UniProtKB/TrEMBL annotation:
Residues 4-290 form the ATPase BadF/BadG/BcrA/BcrD type domain. It comes from the Bacteria. This is ATPase BadF/BadG/BcrA/BcrD type domain-containing protein. Pfam families: BcrAD_BadFG. Coiled coil: none annotated. InterPro entries: ATPase_BadF, ATPase_NBD, Euk-type_GlcNAc_Kinase.
Amino acid sequence: MLAIDIGGTGSRARLVRPGGEPAEFAGPRPAVEAHGTTVPEVVAALIDRALAALAGAPADTESAPAGTESAQTDLAGAPAGRPRIAAVGIGSTGVPSLVADPGALAASLAERAGAPVALAADAVTAHLGALGGAPGIVVAAGTGVVVLGTDLAEQWVRVDGWGHLLGDRGGGARIGMAGLRAAMRAFDGVDAAGLALLAAARAHFGEPEAWPALLYPRADRAGLLAAFTADVARVADAGDACAAAILADAGAELAASAGAAARPGIHPRVALTGGIAAIPQVCAAFDVSLPARLTRVAAAGDPLDGALELARRTAAGSIAARPALVWAAG
C-alpha cells in the first residue's frame, strides 16, 4: 500500500509492505503558480520513488523527474512475484480548488503507479486519520485549514480550505502573516506591541525592507508564512501579549469553523489535527471557544494515517467517487 499526504509545508509518503517495516520519505511542498498548483508533479515524483523502492533502489533516493516512465514500465513489465503496489491513497491540499480536472489526474496517477488510486481532498484523509473512519467533525489545521463534518452517508459538510488569501482561518499561513503584520506595525512605529515579533521576524527573514520582495513573488508563499508560526508560538511562550493574542484568535477561528460544520445528524465529536494542534495556546483557545454542543476528542492518527486507510479501502474496492471530495481511478 502506498499512502501520500501533500500539505502546504511539505509532502510525505509511506510504503507499507506485508511483513516488512514501512518505508517513509519526504518530498517538497507544492507551489501555486500561474498554471495552478504543482501538486500533480509532487505526487508523481513520490509515486516514482515508491516504485524505485519496490524495484530495489533505496526509498530515500530521488526518482527520475516527473514524466519519466522508466520505474513504472519496469514494474508493470516485471515477472510475477515481484512486489508491486496494490493501491494508492492520496490526500492533498488544493485538489478541489486548484486542480482543473482531479478525475483526470487520478487516472494518470493510476496509470503511473500501475494500481488503483483514490485521490482525495486533504479533509478526507485528515478525517480518516483522526476519527478512524467514524462519523464526526475533523478540523485539519496545518499551513492551511479545512474542516469536514460527515455522517459518512448523506451529509458531507466542508468548511474553509480556501487558501490563505480568502480563508485558512486559524492556519499556519494566517498565523505567520498576522505575526509579520504586527512586526511591520512595530517597525513603522504605529504600534509597539509587536516589538518582540519584529525581533523574531528579523532573525527569521532579515530586515523588514526586504520582506515584500521575499514574500510577494513566491509561489510557495503560504508555506513560507507558515514557517514563522513556530516563532510566534515561541514569542508567546515568553509572555508576549501580542503573539499570545494571535494564537488565541487562531484557536477561536478554528472553533468557529468546527461549529459551522456541525449540522443536525452529524455526530458532535470533534478532533483537531495537523501541525497547529501541537501549539498549546491555540488548543486552549479552541477548547474555550468550541460550541457547547460539541465535544473534543483526541485525534487517533494524522493525515498520512488517513491516506493509508484510504489506500486499504481502495484495495478492498470499498471507495466510491464523491464529487469535490474523492476521485477514484484504476
